[in-house]
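Milestone M4 deliverable, item 7.
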Amino acid sequence: MRYEKHHRRIEMTIKQAIFAGSCTNVAAKPARKLPEFAFIGRSNVGKSSLINLLCDNRKLAKTSSTPGKTQLINHFLINDRWYLVDLPGYGYARMSQEGRDRLRRMIEGYISQSEELVVLFVLVDCRHDIGKIDLDFIHRLGENGIPFAILFTKCDKLGPNALKAQIERDKELLLQDWEELPPMFTSSAQDGSGKKEILDYIEQYI
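Output delivered:
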């Protein structure tokens, strides 16, 4: 698989983030069509905390110590120009098979049918090797031509050398299926690292 890279860098600041609605399918998305940048990852990867960091609002996305809290597709209108989309996590802990199937259909429906989706950020916990469930999900994105980037979370939990070594291991795993690696970012909701780089990357598409 190959991945098209973009190199232009422009700075962005989020001045306004407004909850624009929740839905279970693309037909029920907000009526106003704008570019969408979606965030997804395994349950308890730190997605809600990262979204709140990007938007400078600790209460925007609901955080919880219980994995699998997000069970709807949530749209946030950013700077009246684009949507940040908070998707349910995969690897649904403590959920029935029926519930897991429902969320899987919801996620797959949005990813495959949303014409406004520009980039899907796949969040991965930097403290562990990228898991099979992540690799399988990323592989399906490649098969379906979905543009995505990998976003390593909780990077404050590792020292610089350990973080670099872990990411190199993950790259090796990814290169078993990919000819070129997708864009990658490191982040921490605790110390704010990665915020500027992520927002600047989004800005180049707006």
